[in-house]
Amino acid sequence: MSEEERKLIAIVSQDKRNIIGCYSIKTSTILAPGNGPKYVLNGIDSITIFGEHSVLLGMYDEAEDIEKEIAAIRDAVERGDRTYTLQFCKM
User: pLDDT of 5-32, one tens digit each?
Assistant: First the structure.
């Protein structure tokens, strides 16, 4: 396994239809959520000369839920898990 592969964790997307190998994750606030989710979790799957490429992983209603998700992903990485399935996103 290469050093680059060791840095990846495969995250199963919210819709369970995609598995994305992520180098890092980032959160964003939806500026005009209306009645929908307020936060999104994006996975960074590559970095090119044009910048980071991100993929939407999941959507969240509460900041607490996205914080719990990030903590769970961090724990999975620290344990050396190769995959992680989102647990706290809005379904």
Answer: 557 899 998 888 889 999 999 999 998 8
Q: What is the dihedral of CA 76, 45, 7, 59, to 10 degrees?
A: -20
Entry pTM: 0.85
Question: If you average pLDDT over every residue of the chain, what do you get?
Answer: 89
DSSP state of 70: H
CA–CA separation, 91 and 87 (whole Å): 10
Q: Where are the beta strands (DSSP E) in 1-91?
A: 9-12, 19-22, 24-29, 39-48, 51-60, 83-85
Measured torsion, CA atoms of residues 20, 55, 25, 57, in degrees rounded to the nearest 10: -70
